[in-house]
């Protein structure tokens, strides 16, 4: 019969017990780490709130203007192909491409001494003409662009385009001259251009040239969409809703009270309150500094 070594047997049992204890401790540590990580992932990040600030504002009478703004290039509002006198022979081209010509200025001279003149202040863009001394026909032309009435073509995002109407007033600021001009919307496209998950629509604004502007300059136009004068207004951040109704929090008798309101037009800063507040009421709200996300639309 084989003799059992009790010392080795007992030692082996103790070693297994130690391994089990170590394994249990490791499992416990891992469990604690998992719980801590889950708690941190579920808890709101401090960064989400570090820019929040408690604010107060007084409801007051004001004028609220809703606008949309976009950069654009200055173009002519009138461009046409002017046909020379058919049957005449070309003696001389009196201008260069890109040259400005005053109304009545000479563009072409014919061999019989007659001339083709500019019908209005314009820039000669290009031409299709025969060689000198050759006869002109209906295929020949001089492409001109008027410089008295100018146009700026804007790109307006799809979430604003339904508010833009033909005839809306606009203000144009030109970078090169720092001049400001009053204009109107003359065209709103019904077809958008899709890119980067958003469609934009072409909107044309026309305005008069004061003689200082050249075609191809650039600037920014602000189109006025809506305007409400002498209305009660509060900061946009002060109004919140539940999906159906709008509310503000009003300071009253040393405490805060939720009040339902009816809203009107708004811009990036203020919103019209048609009902629910009166001038002098103090509202309290939390404001988040999102200036880094501001774009060119307002």
Quick structural overview:
The protein is mainly beta. It contains two helices and 19 strands. The C terminus is likely disordered.
Question: Can you describe what's shown?
Answer:
The protein is mainly β and 298 residues long. The protein has two helices and 19 strands. Strand 16 and strand 17 form a beta hairpin. The longest helix has 37 residues. The chain is elongated, with a radius of gyration of 37 Å.
Structure annotation, total helices: 2
Q: Could you name the ranges where pLDDT drops below 50 across 5 or more consecutive residues?
A: 45-49, 291-298
What summary fits the major beta sheet? 6 strands, antiparallel, barrel
**Strand percent estimate:** over 45%
Order of strands, main sheet, comes to: 2-10-13-12-11-14
State the total count of DSSP E strands: 19
Helix content: 10-25%
Radius of gyration: 37 Å
Return the string of H and E elements.
HEEEEEEEEEEHEEEEEEEEE
For the terminal residues, how far apart are their CA atoms? Answer: 98 Å
SS class:
mainly beta
Question: Which shape, going by the Cα principal axes?
Answer: elongated
Estimate the mean pLDDT confidence. Answer: 86
């Amino acid at each position: 019969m084989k003799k059992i070594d009790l010392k080795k047997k007992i030692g082996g049992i103790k070693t297994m017990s130690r391994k089990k204890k170590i394994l249990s401790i490791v499992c416990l540590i891992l469990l604690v780490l998992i719980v801590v990580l889950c708690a941190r992932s579920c808890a709101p990040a401090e960064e989400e709130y570090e820019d929040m600030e408690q604010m107060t504002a007084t409801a007051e009478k004001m004028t609220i203007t809703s606008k949309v703004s976009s950069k654009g290039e200055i173009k002519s509002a009138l461009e046409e192909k002017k046909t020379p006198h058919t049957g005449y022979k070309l003696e001389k081209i009196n201008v260069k491409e890109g040259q400005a010509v005053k109304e009545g200025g000479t563009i072409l001279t014919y061999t019989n001494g007659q001339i083709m003149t500019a019908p209005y202040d314009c820039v000669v863009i290009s031409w299709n003409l025969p060689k000198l001394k050759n006869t002109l026909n209906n295929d020949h032309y001089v492409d001109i662009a008027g410089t008295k009435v100018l146009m700026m073509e804007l790109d307006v995002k799809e979430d604003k385009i339904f508010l833009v109407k033909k005839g809306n007033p606009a203000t144009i600021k030109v970078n090169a001259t720092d001049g400001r001009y009053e204009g109107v919307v003359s065209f709103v496209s019904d077809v958008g251009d899709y890119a980067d998950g958003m469609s934009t629509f072409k909107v044309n604004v026309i305005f008069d040239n004061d003689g200082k502007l050249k075609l191809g300059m650039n600037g920014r136009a602000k189109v006025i969409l809506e305007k409400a004068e002498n209305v009660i207004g509060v900061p946009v951040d002060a109004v919140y809703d539940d999906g159906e109704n709008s509310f503000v929090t009003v300071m009253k008798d040393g405490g805060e009270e939720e009040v339902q309101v009816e809203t009107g037009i708004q811009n990036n800063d203020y919103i019209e309150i048609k009902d629910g507040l009166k001038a002098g009421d103090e509202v309290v709200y939390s404001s988040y500094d999102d200036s880094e996300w501001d774009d060119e639309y307002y």
